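Replying to the earlier thread about multi-chain prediction with a worked example.

Input:
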Amino acid sequence: MASYDPRVNTNSTTQNPPPPPPPPESAPSDMTAPTDGAADVVAATTTPNNTNDEQTDSWKLKFCTVCASNNNRSMEAHLRLATAPSAFPVISFGTGSLVRLPGPSITQPNVYSFNTTSYNQMYEELEEKDARLYRHNGILNMLDRNRNLKWGPERFQDWIPGQPRLEHISKGDKGAQGTEGGVVDVIITCEERCWDAVVDDLMNKGNQLNRPVHVFNVDIKDNHEEALVGGRAILDLANRLNESAMAQRNTHGSAGWENGSGAARLSFDESVPEILAEWQEKHPNLPALWTLAWL
Amino acid sequence: MTQSPEQVVDQVAQLDAARKLVLGDAALYPQIVNGILPIVGANARLELRRWGAEFLAETLASPILATSQKQQLAPTVLSSIQETLLLPETDNAVLASLIQTCASMYPLIFRHTVNHPGDNKTWETMSAVKQEILRKMDSFPCSVKICCIKFLQRVVQVQTPGLIADPRVRPPTQIPAWSPDAQYFETYNMQRPDQNETSLAVVPRNHALLSLPQLEAESSGLLDRLLDVLQEETCNPLIVNATLNCLAPLIRTRQSIANKIIQSIMDFFPTKHVRPPFTPTVRVGVKSMERTARALLFNVMKKNPGHPLMGKMQHYIERLMQSRLETAEDSSRKRGPPAEPTDGLDQTKRARLDAVAPPPLKIPPLPAGPTSYDQLFTLTQDIGLSSFDVKQLPPDIVVKIAIPLLSQVNPALLTQAVDAIRSRYETITKEQNHKRQQLHQAATAAAADDDDDYEPDYEPEDIGDNGPGEAAAIAQEEAELEPDLVSLGPFVLPQPPPLSEEEASEVGRSAVSRVFGMIDAVDAASSSSSTQTKPQQLGFARLAGSTFDREAWVVLLTRLATRAPAGLEIDDKVKAGSAGVKRHSTISDSIRETLYRYILEDFRARLKIGITWLNEEWYNDRVRMKAANQERTDADDEPTVTLYYDTWVLRLLDGFLPYLDSKDIKILVRFLSEIPEVTIAIIQRVAGLARDPERITLTVQALMYLVMFRPPAREMCLNALEDVYQTYEESRPAAGKVLAKWRPQALPAPAEQASTNDSSNPTQPAPSTEAQAST
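Result:
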């Protein structure tokens, strides 16, 4: 763990500077333009955390990706969202009871517990067990990707929404910037079973925060190729959603509300079914599902 | 209060830093919140108001801030919110956050008011804010409206009696406000605010500000308003989903209104609320509402498996799924019937749209002579068609063809055809009755001629003995006619040819392999649905094999192996045993063999099956021994019973022992403790594990467990342990400890220890004979 933390940190610092100016600058708004310009000034003059400030300053939707084991599909999507040109705040979870990775045969999966096993640990253990096999079936590559993204798999059912996640930022988890409050605006699951589990679990959690959250499912088969395709599609969905949410945020006040036209007239939340329908037409092979739930 | 953009940005950066601070240390919240309120108040710039509203929503919902502290903050925050709301605030983001804050705050203020009946100002402010929200709710844009829905749900939850968790809390109605107990009650609740969830149930009946009937009436009205969206003519999926998703806590924690809520969900069918055209957006909406409603009811059913509305809920979910199919079909139907030719030339293919009476059906006459069922029901004259054997088609294809065909059959034609068959049938029966009567008459007439030739004890009713030729002819004729009779008597299936022994065991084996297949199938099914349903625990009410789950199949299989052929084998043995011929393997042996292999394939997971099996074997051995004892006739005839348990327990143990590693102590201990009988042979094998230095601890721990928790096997285990102690030097530290406690005399005295290091201990007691078996 200690050996891998520094690497992650260096990675994140090399990764962070490139993001091009976020969309709001191009949006025709007299409110945000000076703000962003000023943010650059602040960023240049204040603390070493300047890159973070720049990122959090431009408001974005916060995402959460979920699959069964928090290893393949949700982590591919996590990677996509966290490293996109307009990097999104993102956290990720699994809904299974245990982390299950393929083993030597179908009846002998490698099983780990959530929240307490790091990706690095799994990587080293499997490499020792049978490096050839696990390199050949892509498990090691996957774990290598994951350990550069965050510390270890987390279980959705153990997540306490609203619990601060400062330690994930200090650990250097990718996409952690902006998720320090422990809440998200959008949850995207990768399998209907997981969607069911998430919706059910949110009901069980009692909706304590009174905060709305859009829960999507994008059905992705659990293999590396499909995860790649699905991750790209999820990023597409995220961009569309974020664009709409930003548009709403920029047309503030009732005056702006009346003046908007078309989709902008709809509030972001209201336009979600439309956005999803449009997205679905572009990705007919990834059946999608949505609901509005509560954190 | 005008600020330049730079100042605002500076301030936001400072505020962000402050937020990081409280996220790291919740104790700082009161200080920071009080410091921030003036900066982000009603008259601040938009960015600051947005930031502030979001921060307040986060603060009052935060799971790291104690409820008591939130309660102290709430009144101050509330007045600031009221100011902002009354401006009026117009920014959606600020509004949404503020209403979220109110939803989190409502129970806090409510509790505060319960505890401070004198603070009428705070409660009045809260009520004013509540009225403001409720008044404007319908005019707010959707993104704010959904937050209002959640606020509504919170108010209903608070203003409906909940459960009093702690029985020591006296019902508040019994405590007069002036009594010292009221004081106690107040401090009690103050000290342990989480003891009882905030609800109408914690309000004293004579509270100065909170009038129970009024609050309850209000909440009932608000509940109706909340559920109204499910009944509206056209529905917005966003609003409906927001409502459905917040109902679960109400159903779970508020008994008095749960059924009403469930009822109104069950009256809700998304497909009824949408009008064509079914755009992709509408379809996304309908699907989401269906799935959300389903998820909510599943949640209720899972939480409360014995719910009185269980059946209805299941039925509703089925209907919901069906109605979804219909909409799906709707969309495919919209393509229209392409079968209609547009050129109008192809008359034969043109669909008959007008209701013309079908041409009368041509009924071919039945061929002469006896009629078969085939002929009776054949109306077509097409030879190819009537000679076609439908049995050649697989049943599923027949079903696929038959059902659409049936739906397209012209009813008039069908009636004609049925009538034709009926008249044929009646004609045949009439003819046959007539024929039979004639035969009967002929027979009796023939019999009447020579009565005395009849044997007195043999009285066939109608067939005379004297005319064998004639009678035989009649019998033959009757036999010929018999199968044609439509009014047949009971049909008796002919006995199948007897199976040879090989065939029988082959069939038996295939049956067994199917049962194994069931175990795997149930395995797969249960693992896929494990996230959804938890098997109900039946406890003592459980009957072996009553639930048709994996367990049941395992029990079935083990009993098949042990009990089913029990009696049969003994006979076998008696016959074959004397000749000294080894019996060829019986079915039960092959089941045992398969079971053995099945368990070893994955013994860590399937050990439970093994234990079940061995218990059945042991029990069966007992039963058979008892039976054999009862059966024996003379005292000296020792009954011989093959004991399967001993054989198989050792085989199984031998099977997996080599694969046990040092971490498998739980598996070994479980096996040793749950098998019905521990024998010396078993213990020896366990002790043999100590040969491997890595597994010495495993051996010692397993033996120690048996020593401690299986008294009948204690002596045996101690002997084994002593043996291990003597033989394997590496075991001494661990085994020594156990022996020191249970059999100190086996250890060499500390002084001698060095000298007697390698020689065997002379004080070692002989293995006790009583401890041979333990059950």
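Chain B has a mean pLDDT of 76.

Feel free to reuse this layout for your own posts.
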